[in-house]
Amino acid sequence: MEGNRARLERMVDFPRVREGLKSQIQAHLLKKVEQEGEQDPFAGLAYFFVAGMVDPLVDALVSPEGLAALGTGAEPGKAPKEEVKHWRLRYLDFRTAYIHHPKDPQSRLYLKRQGLFGWKVVRMEMPLE
Cβ contacts of residue 29 below 8 Å, gap of 6+? Predict the structure, then answer.
């Protein structure tokens, strides 16, 4: 398992993916607060409560175990290994592609080409509703 983890860490820019996902979630939360703030004066307070949970949640999700479970409906670390075989690759251009699981095509891992044959995950998108 440790060898697989080290290999995955070479293939994923974990800090970059985590920060990108945290930014997406924070922007989504702020948008919701703006929408609901006019009707609910406590929406801002709820934002501060939820915003404090974003970092630990993203840190758990954007881990080798969390990425293996993405799109499968399983908890991080409990996804069946055979689920990884079902992921699909789609090219956007020569340097960019994304992978997704057929059960959840809106959750995507974006890859950037590294050299001629290598790829590295640099961004993650998830449905936030």
Answer: 47, 50, 51, 54
